């Protein structure tokens, strides 16, 4: 799952994940999406930029 | 001492604190970060959890959810009349019950006191597959950032000293400094470079312009960057649990109370001698 807050500054970034993922998968430039979402600092930007969702890979092994 | 706001919204404030000293600016910043109390989930009683996340992980994620805080409504557990056992005056209770397939969000967290509900209902907590279930009860309490970062109501909270740019008479308007400036603070005028109106505050005091000036042949740089130690440019951001204005007022009152009690202690000691 996407971390609730940015590790460095503490801004809640998990709320933006769904929209980020949808728009990134549609082929939009991550830089434009992050600017649109109002993520100004590079600490918050890397949270979304470098996230890999693995919960769907884990679920079969419950 | 004077504060001039350039921006004041419920979640962001930018202001210049002037006629002050570095010690005050820093204690103000530190008080805002670590001494302003807010609500955050501390205890979680898990009745059922067969999701992909461990109980600890779930509790950790719940703790980080910002909750709307009314400071007059709750007091710290250690200062409460219940003696730290937990009562309606020092605790806010939430229940969560969800069955997959679904994405559990912070809006599924049902608060007994609607005034202390999560700031946003859109925070994903856990994704459940068919047959997975999460049932829990969470208790939020008031504390400060000194104890744990989840009780810290500010995000970016910091200051820099006010930049001062002096351009000497020996400037030949070569423009190298203006090209070098990463924040685009300088522009080329007829006889020398100038600071663009309203851009001075953006200067990060990196001194790249000074280096460019020396590099262009001058032994002594015509442009000099220094800072005014009595003026501070502040940025304060809130996570939404408290408005920035309340964070600032609380921090200032707290700082005043602390210095008052220090004066009291000092008077007592000097009186006893």
Explain the layout of strands and helices:
The complex is a heterodimer of chains A (62) and B (273).
Chain A: H1 17-25, H2 30-36, H3 42-49, H4 55-58
Chain B: E1 2-8, E2 12-18, H1 22-34, E3 38-49, H2 55-63, E4 91-99, E5 102-105, E6 110-111, E7 124-128, E8 133-143, E9 154-167, H3 176-180, E10 186-188, E11 193-195, H4 208-215, E12 223-238, H5 244-272
Antiparallel strand pairs in B: 1-2, 2-12, 3-8, 4-6, 4-8, 5-7, 9-12, 10-11
Keywords:
heterodimer, A: 62 residues, mainly alpha, Arc Repressor Mutant, subunit A, 45% helix, B: 273 residues, alpha+beta, Gyrase A, domain 2, RNA Polymerase Alpha Subunit, Chain A, domain 2, 2 domains, 4-stranded antiparallel β-sheet, 5 helices, 23% helix
Structure description:
The complex is a heterodimer of chains A (62) and B (273). The longest helix of chain A is centred in the middle third of the chain and has 9 residues, at 17-25. Chain A has a domain at 14-56: Arc Repressor Mutant, subunit A. Chain A has 4 helices and no strands. Helix content of chain A is 45%, strand content 0%. Chain B has 273 residues and is of the alpha+beta class. Chain B is 23% helix and 34% strand. Chain B has 5 helices and 12 strands. In chain B, helix 1 (22-34) crosses helix 5 (244-272). The model of chain B has no long low-confidence stretch (mean pLDDT 91). Classes of the chains: A mainly alpha (62), B alpha+beta (273). The interface between A and B is medium-sized, with 18 and 25 residues.
């Amino acid at each position: 799952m996407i971390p609730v807050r940015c590790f460095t500054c503490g801004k809640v970034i998990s709320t933006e994940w769904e929209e980020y993922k949808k728009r990134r998968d549609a082929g939009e430039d991550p830089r434009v999406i992050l600017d649109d979402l109002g993520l100004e600092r590079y600490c918050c930007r890397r949270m979304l930029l470098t996230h890999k969702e693995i919960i769907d890979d884990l679920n079969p092994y419950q | 001492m004077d504060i001039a706001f350039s921006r004041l919204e419920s979640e962001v404030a930018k202001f210049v604190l002037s006629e002050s000293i570095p010690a005050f600016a820093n204690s103000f910043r530190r008080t805002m970060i670590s001494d302003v109390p807010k609500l955050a989930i501390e205890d979680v009683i898990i009745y059922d959890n067969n999701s992909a996340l461990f109980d600890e992980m779930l509790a950790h994620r719940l703790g980080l959810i910002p909750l709307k805080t009314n400071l007059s409504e709750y007091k710290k557990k250690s200062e409460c009349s219940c003696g730290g056992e937990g009562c309606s005056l020092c605790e806010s209770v939430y229940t969560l019950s969800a069955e997959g397939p679904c994405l559990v969000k912070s809006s599924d967290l049902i608060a007994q006191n609607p005034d202390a509900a999560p700031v946003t209902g859109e925070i994903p907590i856990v994704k459940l597959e068919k047959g997975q279930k999460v049932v829990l009860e969470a208790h939020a309490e008031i504390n400060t950032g000194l104890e744990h970062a989840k009780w810290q109501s500010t995000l970016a909270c910091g200051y820099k000293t006010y930049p001062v740019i002096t351009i000497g008479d020996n400037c030949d308007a070569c423009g190298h400094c203006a090209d070098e400036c990463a924040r685009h603070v300088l522009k080329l005028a007829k006889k020398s470079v100038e600071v663009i109106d309203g851009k001075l505050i953006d200067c990060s005091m990196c001194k790249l312009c000074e280096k460019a000036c020396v590099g262009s042949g001058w032994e002594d740089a015509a442009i000099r960057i220094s800072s005014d130690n009595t003026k501070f440019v502040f940025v304060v951001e809130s996570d939404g649990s408290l408005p920035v204005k309340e964070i600032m007022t609380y921090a200032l009152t707290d700082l005043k109370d602390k210095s008052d009690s220090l004066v009291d202690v000092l008077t007592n000691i000097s009186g006893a001698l």
